[in-house]
Amino acid sequence: MISFILNGLDVQTEDGSTILEACKFYGIEIPTLCYNEGLRPYGGCRLCLVEIGSGENSRLVSSCTYPVEEGLNVRTNTKRVVDARKMMIELLVSICPQSKTVQDLASKYHVTRVRFPVRNDNCVLCGLCVRMCKEQMQSGAIGFSERGYKKKIVTPFNIRSEQCRLCGGCIYICPACQMRCQGPDAETDLCSGCLSLEPTCIETHDDYQCWMGTTGDCGTCEGRPDQRTKPDNR
User: Fold this and answer.
1) Helix 100-108 and helix 79-95, axial crossing angle in degrees, nearest 10
2) Which residues does residue 60 pair with via DSSP β-bridges, in sequence order?
3) What pTM, to 2 d.p., does this model score?
4) β-pairing, 2-6 with 73-75?
5) What is the fold of 2-77?
6) CB-based contacts of 176, cutoff 8 Å, min separation 6
7) CATH assignment, 128-177
8) pLDDT by position in tens, the chain (length 234)
9) CA-based torsion, 4, 28, 82, 120: positive or negative
10) Which residues contact 209 (CB under 8 A, 6 or more apart)?
């Protein structure tokens, strides 16, 4: 067993565990996109960042690929970590705003703006489909080509691969293939429809919930007394 510090607590985990696996064991939630328990860790999306070390020697690492070390000091929710995660989610939204998976992440982690130009690509380069095809389906019909902003997922020589069995595993696991609720022609880049699924403002609105409209449209959250009336048709 390896002893380390997790959010200020002395804990233990099995030798060979990653930080993400240890955090999951102790019930600490860390967002992921490119991670899947049945596939080899990739560390591409950078959503699972945590801060290790302390003081000037602290740094951000991807928890899905970083192994736990004896005496390691891990913090999962520092301001630096939260800000980095939000920025990564903003980037993902700018790349693929039509993905329900990405939109759900934005709502869950309270990302309310996108500061990057929206590209509307059909791929977030998480590598899930490539690993699924190779590791689970034992095929290897697709892979990465090019580098940097030109990087993409293709079949060898851009022709139909003889290794492909049309199993659909790549589509099943792809987060970009899960269309957002508003469809491909959504009016906004951010949905924010699931920003809060809990009943809110019970003292003012009998059973109003934020998902029934854009967050704050009733005025209560923004503290405007003149608008604190029960919305029509809610």
Assistant:
1) 150
2) 51
3) 0.80
4) parallel
5) Ubiquitin-like (UB roll) (3.10.20)
6) 96, 98, 99, 101, 102, 121, 122, 123, 124
7) 3.30.70.20
8) 999 999 999 999 999 999 999 999 999 999 999 999 999 999 999 999 999 998 888 999 999 999 999 999 999 999 999 999 999 999 999 999 999 999 999 999 999 899 999 998 889 999 999 999 999 999 989 999 998 888 999 998 889 888 898 999 999 999 999 999 888 788 889 988 777 655 556 666 666 555 555 555 555 554 444 443 444 433
9) positive
10) 196, 197, 198, 199, 200
Q: Is 12 exposed, middle or buried (0-12, 13-18, 19+ CB in 10 A)?
A: middle
Name the residue ranges covered by the structural domains of the chain. Answer: 2-77, 128-177, 196-234
Reference 189, options 126, 121, 125, 109; nearest CA is 121
Contact 153, 142 (CB under 8 A): yes
Nearest Cα neighbor of 103 from 169, 49, 180 is 180
